[in-house]
């Protein structure tokens, strides 16, 4: 009998999650209802927002419960179907979670193009990651040619796409990343105009020099001291899409206890628009997303590096590495190979 391996939430972490935050178990195979399809996960997306779900407090997403299977996006193949219009071997993008098999409603899947050469792109630039970058920048950032766009976590999955879209829209794009190696990736592969290492002793000076005309858009993925450094550089009427606060996901506060008061001062003085957003709030406003992103990928205007890990046992280490800044690009774990039918 085939076992369904799952990774479940075992304990709420205090500070950075560790391996004992999770437990591996075997569960019965799902039983299909009418209108459902049984999927075998092939590639799993590893995303920082999951850290927020580990707190037992109000957020934009309900907290994980002890014993709950860790959720997440995946690309899977259909192994059985009780829904019209789907066939065994079809590849689909789903909310599959950290497990081998899952039964999902046929209304909750996205079928991938037959024989696609880039199935994992549907976890990156053609998936929720790409939608977040695209909709957040265009809806809230509203880039104009000649403006300066600063992107934190620029070597990450969302940040890297934001900068490339900003470049396409005619912005000067400045990235912020956590090492010289990542900064080289951002400028050499992603073609940002500049990238600054926030761990370098001259970070404040280097960022100011990289933004001689100030900052018109700051796409914030990290919060904390990095954001406190950017704010004095913003121009009047700057826009700040607030996508994430990864520097504070483990419970840390901003570097300066007066940070909130200082933030409010800059909002008033520079008349800044700051808007937190969740992709599902605004992505429906952009039905052209997939077609435009596909075109950019085909033309080489957008590139996407994948930080690929192999095997089911690599899922938790990949997540812990993501929180520790070990990844460059989109973190994905391959847990199975497609069958010859896929």
How does this model look, in words?
With 342 residues, this protein is an alpha/beta fold. The protein has two domains: 148 residues, Alpha-Beta Complex (Quinone Oxidoreductase, Chain A, domain 1), CATH 3.90.180; 155 residues, NAD(P)-binding Rossmann-like Domain (Rossmann fold). Helix content is 27%, strand content 24%. It has ten helices and 15 strands. Strands 3, 4, 5, 6, 7, 14 and 15 form a seven-stranded mixed sheet that branches. A six-stranded parallel sheet has the order 10-9-8-11-12-13, sandwiched between helices. Strand 11, helix 6 and strand 12 form a beta-alpha-beta unit. Helix 2 packs across helix 3. The chain is globular, with a radius of gyration of 21 Å.
């Amino acid at each position: 009998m085939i076992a369904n391996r799952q990774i479940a939430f075992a304990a709420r972490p205090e500070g950075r999650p560790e391996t004992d935050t999770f437990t591996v178990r075997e569960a019965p195979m799902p039983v299909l209802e009418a209108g459902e399809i049984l999927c075998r996960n092939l590639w799993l997306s590893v995303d920082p927002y999951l850290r927020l779900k580990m707190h037992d407090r109000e957020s934009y997403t309900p907290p994980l419960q002890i014993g709950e299977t860790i959720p997440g996006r995946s690309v899977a193949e259909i192994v059985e179907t009780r829904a019209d219009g789907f066939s065994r071997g079809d590849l689909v993008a789903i909310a599959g979670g950290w497990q081998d098999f899952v039964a999902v409603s046929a209304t909750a899947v996205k079928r991938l193009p037959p024989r696609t050469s880039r199935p994992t792109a549907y976890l990156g630039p053609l998936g929720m990651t790409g939608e977040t970058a695209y909709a957040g920048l265009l809806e809230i950032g509203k880039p104009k040619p000649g403006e300066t766009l600063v992107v934190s976590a620029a070597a990450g999955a969302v940040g890297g796409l934001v900068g490339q879209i900003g470049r396409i829209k005619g912005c000067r794009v400045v990235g912020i990343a956590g090492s010289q190696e990542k900064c080289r990736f951002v400028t050499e592969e992603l073609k940002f105009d500049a990238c600054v290492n926030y761990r370098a002793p001259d970070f404040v000076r280097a960022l100011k020099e990289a933004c001689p005309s100030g900052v018109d858009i700051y796409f914030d993925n990290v919060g904390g001291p990095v954001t406190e450094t950017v704010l004095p550089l913003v121009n009047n009427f700057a826009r700040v899409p607030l996508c994430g606060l990864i520097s504070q996901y483990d419970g840390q506060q901003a570097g300066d206890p007066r940070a909130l008061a200082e933030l409010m001062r800059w909002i008033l003085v520079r008349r800044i628009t700051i808007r937190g957003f969740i992709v599902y709030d605004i992505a429906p406003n952009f039905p052209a997303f997939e077609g435009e992103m596909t075109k950019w990928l085909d033309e080489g205007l957008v590139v996407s590096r994948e930080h690929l890990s192999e095997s089911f046992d690599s899922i938790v280490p990949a997540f812990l590495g993501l929180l520790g800044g070990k990844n460059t690009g989109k973190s994905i774990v391959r847990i199975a190979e497609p069958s010859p039918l896929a």
